[in-house]
Design goal:
elongated, 16 helices
C-alpha cells in the first residue's frame, strides 16, 4: 500500500468514526429486527407515540403479517399513520378493510375516516356513491354533492338527517345553490371583444371594466395619432400595445367569470365548515393521546 493510499484510508476511517459518534449522539431508536410479534407491536406503538408515522405503519404491517391476524385496532392505527403523514390514498385502503366488516367495533369510526380521507383526496364521486347511515356521513355526502355541483339533489338526504341544525343548514345551502346565477365565460369574452371592458361589467366589476376600456382606448388613440403623423415605428409599436390590451381584456373577462363562479361556490362550501363533524370532533385525537 502506498503512503497516499494509507493517508486516504485513515481519512475515511476518521470520517466513519465521526458519523458513528454523531448518530449515537442523536440517540435514534434502531429498527426492531425481532420476529416476535409482541415486541414488534411494542416498538410500533413507541414509533406511533413519537409521531414517526411512516416507520410505525411499516412495523404495524409487519406485526399483522407475522401474527397472521386481522386486528382492526392495528388496521385503524395504520390508517391514522398514513393520514397523519398526508398519504390519504393509503389511509383510505386501510380504513376500507375495517368498514367492510359490520362485526368490528371500529366500523363507524372507520367509515367516517374513509369519507374524511376521500374528501382530502377530493374523490367526490366516491363519496357521493357512499351508502351513508349517520348524520356525519350525510354531511360528507352533501359536501361531495356541492363540490360536484350536481343539478339534481336527492331530498332523501334531508329526510335521513336527525340533527336539526345540520338539516336546516344543508336545506338552506341547497336553496341558495339553486338560486345561483352562473355567468358564462364565453359571453363575457364576447362582450369584451365588442366593447373592451364590457365583459367585466357583466360580472359586476365596473372598476376593472373602466380600467380596461380606458387603457385600450388610450393606447388606440396614441396609435392613431402616431400613424396620422406618419410616425410609422411609433404607430406600429403603439398598435401592438393596443392589441395586447384588447386581447388581455378579452382573456381577463373569461378568467374573471370563472373566478366569479368559483367564488360563489366556495362561499357555499364555507357555510358548511362550522358543522363539519371531523372539525368539531377529530376522531384521531383519542388515539394520539393513548
Amino acid at each position: 500500500m502506498t503512503r497516499s493510499s494509507a493517508t486516504i484510508l485513515k481519512r475515511k476511517n476518521k470520517t466513519l468514526i465521526i458519523v458513528a459518534i454523531f448518530l449515537a449522539a442523536l440517540n435514534l431508536p434502531a429498527a426492531d429486527t425481532s420476529i416476535d410479534p409482541p415486541k414488534i407491536l411494542s416498538f410500533a406503538n413507541h414509533l406511533f407515540a413519537t409521531q414517526d408515522y411512516l416507520r410505525a405503519a411499516i412495523e404495524y404491517e409487519r406485526y399483522l403479517y407475522l401474527s397472521d391476524t386481522e386486528n382492526d385496532t392495528i388496521l385503524f392505527k395504520i390508517g391514522l399513520c398514513h393520514q397523519l403523514r398526508e398519504r390519504y390514498d393509503y389511509a383510505v385502503q386501510a380504513f376500507m378493510k375495517i368498514m367492510n366488516s359490520d362485526k368490528s367495533e371500529l366500523t363507524t369510526s372507520a367509515r367516517l375516516a374513509y369519507l374524511y380521507n376521500q374528501s382530502k383526496l377530493e374523490n367526490w364521486g366516491a363519496i357521493q356513491q357512499f351508502d351513508s347511515r349517520t348524520d356525519a356521513e350525510y354531511y360528507f355526502q352533501y359536501l361531495a354533492h356541492l363540490h360536484q355541483d350536481s343539478t339534481i339533489f336527492n331530498p332523501a338526504i334531508l329526510n335521513s338527517i336527525t340533527d336539526d341544525s345540520l338539516r336546516e343548514l344543508i336545506a338552506d345551502t341547497e336553496a341558495q345553490r339553486q338560486k345561483l346565477q352562473r355567468k358564462s365565460p364565453l359571453l363575457a369574452s364576447f362582450l369584451s371583444a365588442v366593447v373592451p371592458g364590457l365583459g367585466k361589467v357583466y360580472i359586476k366589476r365596473p372598476g376593472d371594466a373602466l380600467f380596461s376600456f380606458g387603457m385600450t382606448g388610450f393606447a388606440g388613440l396614441v396609435s392613431w395619432q402616431a400613424l396620422k403623423a406618419d410616425l410609422l415605428i411609433t404607430g406600429i409599436a403603439c398598435s401592438g400595445i393596443t392589441l395586447s390590451f384588447y386581447l388581455g381584456t378579452i382573456y381577463g373577462s373569461y378568467i374573471g367569470t370563472q373566478l366569479h363562479n368559483r367564488s360563489q361556490h366556495e362561499n357555499l362550501v364555507e357555510r358548511l365548515e362550522d358543522l363539519n363533524p371531523v372539525k368539531k370532533n377529530p376522531y384521531w385525537t383519542a388515539w394520539i393521546r393513548k
